[in-house]
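User: For documentation purposes, I need each entry recorded in a consistent format: the amino acid sequence on its own, followed directly by the corresponding structure tokens. There are two entries in this batch. Please keep commentary to a minimum and don't merge the entries.

Assistant: Recorded as requested. Entry 1:
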Amino acid sequence: MIKSITPRSSGPLSGIKVLDFSRILSGPYASMILADLGAEVIKVEPIEKGDETRGFPPFKNGLSHYYIALNRSKKSIALNLKSPEGVKIAKGLARQSDIVLENFRPGVMDRLGLGYDTLRAENRRLIYCSISGFGTNSPHGDKPAFDIVAQALSGVMSVNCKPGQAPNKLGIPLGDMAGSIFSLFGILAALHERNLTGNGRHIEVAMLDSLIAMQGYLSQIYFITGESPQPVGSQHPSIVPYGSFPTSDGHVIVACLTDRFWHNFARCLDQEALIEDPRFAVYEQRLANRDALQAIIQERMTKDSSDYWLERLTKFDVPNAPILSIGDALEQAHVLNRGLIENVDHPIAGQIKMVRGPIRFDGKGPDGSKAPSLLGENTIEVLMAKLGMDMSDIETLLDQGVIKRSDYDQPSTEVGG
């Protein structure tokens, strides 16, 4: 019986096997990072349409941008978890896995017969990570949770706007991503512990908990003052000057987090007298006199262009940046020099560009990625290599609607340890 498929890379998690039941974003982002780090990830998808994000436009030759963004370097097995045979297959794969990842509402995996207690009974080394909107023991209970719901309940939306304007969700899906990021912390810590004890863990991460944990200094402002931080647009709630400033033809970012940078900025503005001005000499006074200082800065900076100020701010060693569009950000020299974009070949979509993972070891980034799989692209490969099934077994499961295969799913002859 073939025990495993050859690991994709020599990354630090090479040899670690992940069984991924998660879908959409909170969960798939975590399993994608595990794949970047060398783990073998088998993504379990519903046989009808797969991960819901496969249907989210825009598409490239039928492949969703959303699915591309979150599912590189994973194997796809299309499995009917509502059938006893489908659950049996999932249990068989879990027995051989180091990590199980799921992001259903609490209780769903138990009802499917795939809960932590059930799977751990046959694999005490299993690390089982559950991501949900609110976790257990929450008054929000079984309410569905998506990124914007978590953002709203966390308080972060309330400060993500200019004063007097309607609150906005963050431009990136941080509610979803926060759940994935904290789950990675838990998974990697549990792997370390397992090396010492031989036992796995059940990790629970809630999206709302994760965003609350990422409030940082905002929560402490409330605890210390008793008042909720108010929106300040792109400015900082307690550091002045800091944020977006208008020029004659646009805006630039200036971030004077320390007195040294504030002094440099005052000199850059040809306003060195501001350094000793009692209204602006120390943090507290600059904060108390924010409007007066902002007016002085704006009057000076709107006389010259963004390019002028970016060059001058750099000359005076003031933290600064232009405000780039997503396209400009992806095309900037930094991204090119760091090798953050790669081209991969997909059997239907053709050549596609993807953003690479950001983690480097010994100066080297992740191995080249594998394009996101078609639905069921690896069903036969996984069942043969992991569970030792032959084609007659597989044909029976196909006829029964337990599994689904892709036209590109071919038996693999690769074996590994």
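Entry 2:
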Amino acid sequence: MKVVIMAGGYATRLWPITKTKAKPLLPMGKRRIIDIVYDKVKSFGTVVVSTNRRFEPDFRKWAEDKDVELFVEDSMSEEEKLGAVRALAEVAAYLDDEMLVVAGDNLFSFTLEGFVEFYREKGEPVTALYDVGDYELAKRYGVAELDGRRIVGFMEKPASPPSTLVGIGIYAFPRRVCGLLSEYVEGNAKADNIGDFMGWLCEREELYGYAFSGNWYDIGSPDSYIEAFKTFMEHSVAEVEVDRRAKIIEPVAIEEGVKIIGRSIVGPYAYIGRNCVIENSDVCDSVVFDNVILRRAKVWRSIVDEDCEIRNLDLSGSIIGAHAKIQRGE
């Protein structure tokens, strides 16, 4: 079995942060999103990460100490991307093997041993499902209609969901599905959503669903990123300078070279990148990238990209792009 981690998207809903950073490489404390995914799947077979030419150097750096092969699609922008199904079809044609496929921005607390065992038992395609427990919420996802454990219908973002069981970007495919992926993309314009392919597949093959319980996060928005961050981060503080008047509330992840000055409060649930200066400022439920200066600022449920300077300002539910300088008058 080959394991495919899909990491070729451009994450437009997290722009401007993801204009310069691949979403699977965003921090979850000291680790990255893809680190958590990789640890979940590496025992099942050779791991192949499908990404794009734009972020290829970043993934190559990430993969240096791992047993990972990169498969790089020839795209540099959202407009050029292949789409998830077409990208998977290209990987499948290259591998020509059975595959465990996992989205690279998909975080979950459960293990996959039972899922893979169920796939082995059936010998048929299997997709992971999660009960969101709400029909309105289900409208945002691909939704399965089941007869027992067999999926008899799969609809992408339906207006009237047949259930609250949604697909969560985890699939097990026998080798023959490699050819079916190619057949689908050759004759179908809907090559972006794997949910559309699953609907097509269940009309031609026995397709089964395997429902999970536990925590699952589809990291598609700043809120879902921060909620996942709060669940998966681990407390870690590097060698940093902390004023005796400052306070750190666990858990936090603070990188090297950080200065926390004055009556600052950092945490809980804060990531502070390298060489930041936090002066008389509060940061919680937030991600702050490298070389950021905060002076007399309050940052809550926000993402601040690298090389920013923010003074005399309260940020709540905000995304600040790199190199921004924002201040309110004294």
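Summary note for entry 2:
The mean pLDDT is 92.
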